[in-house]
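Cross-check.
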Amino acid sequence: MEGLNIAMKSAVSKGVFDGIHIPNSNISSGLKVNFTKSKVYRIGAPLQEVNNWVCRLRCEPASLPFTYLGVPIGANINRIATWHPVMEKLKSKLSSWKAKTLSFGGRVTLAKAVLGSIPTYFLTIFNAPIGVINLLEKIRRQFIWGGPNCNRNIN
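Predicted model, tokenized:
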């Protein structure tokens, strides 16, 4: 954001961009970095340099991996453990009490709707390992057939 802010100010000062003028308005269009929410990540930099930046910017040091908008950054996406948050969220939505209260058609509909929406965000960004796909299918199958016992109860 800071880079965009500097580029926009430069474009305005050179007359390339005039900005938006709203009459009788007190809206400010300046962008500022919120350093209390910002972090400094050490990627190939000496620890002392990171500490200097942390002191200057008054923000926190951090390390990889981290999560941004629910997406793991710097994590090995080929490991099944990286996909555990997606699987846990799926399990919480397809809980066994719901499986017991819905008909077979209701369970199929809910499983399709939930399985189609929750992992889609991750699957549009990353290719999932086959082990993850198999585990997601197992969760869906267990829900459709009535819970973790898979008693194949068709109501």
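The chain has a mean pLDDT of 80. Residues 1-32 form one domain. Passed to J.P. for a second look.
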